[in-house]
Structure formats: C-alpha cells, structure tokens
C-alpha cells in the first residue's frame, strides 16, 4: 500500500511539474482585456499631454555638450572649431584659423533653435550668421545655411562630441 501511495504521489508531482514548465502548444494572439486609447473620442477626449511625442534629436539625443574638430580652410591649414551647446539652448562658438599667427580666434555666443520641419537641424542665431548644423549621436555636422541640406563635398565638416 505504501509503495502504491508513493508511486502515485510521484506521478502526480511529476505531471504537475512538467505541465507547469511546458508552453501551450498553440498560442493565440493575446488581447488585453482593457486597452487605453490615446485617440480622442467623444467619451474620452485626450489632452495634448496624452498624445505620443515624435522622436527627434531634441527629445531623443543627449545633444548638450562640447563639439570639437577642424574644418577645412581655403587659405590656412584649418579652422579649429569648438561649438558648445547648452541645455538652455544657448551656444558658444569658437573658431581659430591655424597657421595665421596671433589674433585669428573668433568667439561668438548666442541662442539656437531646432528646425520645425527637420528637428535634427539646429540654427544658430545672427551672431553666428544663422549657421545650421545636423545633430547626430555624439556629433554635429555643418549644413547649408539656406536649406539645411548636407554640403556637397568630400571635406569633413563634422565636430565630435567631447565625452567626459
């Protein structure tokens, strides 16, 4: 009797253990019992804070920081360039013309804004001649001042972010 009881107990425990570990053979698409909708309806008007925000360089990248590099120069060995973007949307742009002696450093400060049509582009204010830059992951790249399009050149107009 004891042997039968032990064997039966082991069979039940083994069956329960295997059943708990096995996945169901057919999986049906799960449908949650309650789904929140962000689409405004007459019964559930959505506020603007509930609507999803599109990803952009401004919202999805850590763009604030110092970017450094050397831009090409027609009559010198290069323009050592540093652009600091601050989280309050102000900037400092420093350019030093290499190989030209002293007094060839220019520094401007001002504000910038993200482009409405292409939120990966920033435009510096008039102090920096409304220059445009594409903001990427740990770099900025100078763009055409009028269109914001990439410059048609093989020369390097990228500044790399200084990672601390």
UniProtKB/TrEMBL annotation:
Matching InterPro entries: Cu-R_lipoprotein_NlpE
Bias-annotated ranges (Low complexity): 29-41
Top-level lineage group: Bacteria
Ranges annotated as spanning the membrane: none
Protein name, UniProt field: Copper resistance protein NlpE
Keywords: Signal
Pfam family, one: NlpE
Signal peptide feature range: 1-20
Annotated stretches, region: Disordered: 22-55
Ranges of compositional bias, category Polar residues: 42-51
Gene3D superfamilies in UniProt: 2.40.128.640
């Amino acid at each position: 009797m004891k042997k039968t009881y032990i064997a039966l107990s082991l069979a039940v425990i083994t069956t329960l253990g295997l059943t708990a570990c096995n996945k169901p053979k057919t999986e049906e698409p799960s449908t949650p019992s309650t789904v929140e909708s962000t689409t405004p309806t007459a019964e559930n008007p959505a506020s603007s804070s509930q609507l999803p925000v599109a990803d952009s360089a401004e919202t999805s990248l850590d763009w604030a920081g110092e970017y450094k590099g050397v831009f090409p120069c027609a009559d010198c060995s290069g323009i050592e360039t540093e652009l600091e973007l601050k989280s309050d949307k102000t900037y400092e742009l420093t350019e030093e013309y290499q190989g030209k002696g002293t007094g060839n450093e220019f520094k401007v400060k001002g504000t910038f804004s993200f482009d409405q049509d292409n939120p990966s582009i920033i435009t510096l204010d008039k102090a920096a001649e409304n220059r445009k830059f594409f903001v990427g992951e740990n770099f900025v790249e100078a763009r055409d001042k009028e269109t914001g399009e990439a410059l048609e050149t093989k020369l390097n107009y990228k500044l790399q972010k200084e990672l601390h």
